[in-house]
C-alpha cells in the first residue's frame, strides 16, 4: 500500500495519483489533513495501527511506500469537541482544549514518523517540511555554495549603512511570508528591492528583517530534486520589469520564458550534499546566476510546487514521483 499525506486542493498530488492509476497501481490511500474524513481506531505496537477513511479501516503496518507531500495535523477529535462541554469554567475549558490539541499533534507526529520509518520507500519529510532560511544559507556556505551577502537588520541607521556599502538590497520573509486570503482580497508578500530612496518611508526601528545584497542577475534557476536526480529550469525573468526582482509577479500578457537546463556538475554535487545534510530526498531549490556566470543559492522549499518545472520542460515529474513510490 502507498500512503500519501497531502491537502485536498493540492493539484500536484492529484496528478501523481493519476499516474499511479495509469501505471496500474490501485492500492494507495490519500490522507488530506484539511478534510475531516480520517478517524483514529487503534494501535497495539505489534501489527496493528488502524485509522479509517470514510469508515474504511487502514492498517498503517501495511504501508510499503510513503509520500509526505504537505499538510499539517489531522484533527481526530475536532467534530466531537464542538459538542462537548468540558467545564463550566471557560478559562479551564480553553486550557483543556489546548491540552487535547497538544495530544492530537503528538499523535499526528508519531503517525507520520511511524509510516515514514515503516515504509521501505519514503519520500519527503514532515519533520523537515519547514526549513529555516538562515540556517540553510549557513549550511550552503559550509558546502562551498555561494550565497548573496545576507543581513538581519532592525534599524533604519543600519539599513542605510548597508545600502551605502553594498548598493541595492532585496528583502523577503525569514519564514514563509504573508499568504492571507479572505472573501474580497488576497495578501501576499514578494521579494522586494530596497534602495536609499525607500528609507524615507521606513521607521527608525522595525522588526528584525532579512535583507540580501541584490544580485545583478542574468537569469534564475528553479531546481527540483528527486531521489538522486536534479531537474532544472531557467527562468528568464530579468527581461520583464514586473518580474525582474521576483518572477512570481507573473505577467500574463508577457510571460517569462522557461527552458530546460543542466546545473554544472560541481554545483549538483554540492547541492546533493546540502539536501543530504538536511535529511531531504526531495524539494525545490532556487538559484540566480549573475552577469559573470556566478551561481548564487537562495533557498530550498521541501514542499514546493514542481509542476511549474515539469510542464514547460516536459520532464513529466508527476510520473517520475509515481515511479519512485512504486519502486
Characterization of the model:
By secondary structure, the protein is an alpha+beta fold. It has three domains: 2-123; 130-147 and 216-302, ATP-grasp fold, B domain (D-amino Acid Aminotransferase, Chain A, domain 1); 149-214, no CATH class. Helix content is 29%, strand content 30%. The strands form five sheets. A five-stranded antiparallel beta sheet has the order 16-15-14-17-18. It has a four-stranded parallel beta sheet with strand order 2-1-6-7, with helices on both faces. α1 (11-22) packs across α8 (317-326). The longest helix has 29 residues, at 90-118. The protein starts with a strand and ends with a helix. The mean pLDDT is 90. Keywords: ATP-binding, Nucleotide-binding. Residues 137-326 form the ATP-grasp domain. This is ATP-GRASP peptide maturase, grasp-with-spasm system.
Q: What's the domain count?
A: 3
* Overall helicity: 25-40%
- The ordered string of helix (H) and strand (E) elements is EHEEEEEHHEHEHEEEEEEEEHEEHH
Query: Helix count, per DSSP?
Result: 8
Q: In angstroms, what is the radius of gyration?
A: 23 Å
Number of DSSP E strands: 18
> Based on CA inertia axes, which overall geometry fits?
globular
Based on secondary structure, the structural category is alpha+beta
Query: What is the rounded distance between the termini?
Result: 12 Å
The proportion of strand residues reads 25-35%
Largest sheet: 5 strands, antiparallel
Question: Which terms would index this structure?
Answer:
327 residues, alpha+beta, D-amino Acid Aminotransferase, Chain A, domain 1, 3 domains, five-stranded antiparallel beta sheet, four-stranded parallel beta sheet, 8 helices, 18 strands, globular, nucleotide-binding, GRASP_w_spasm
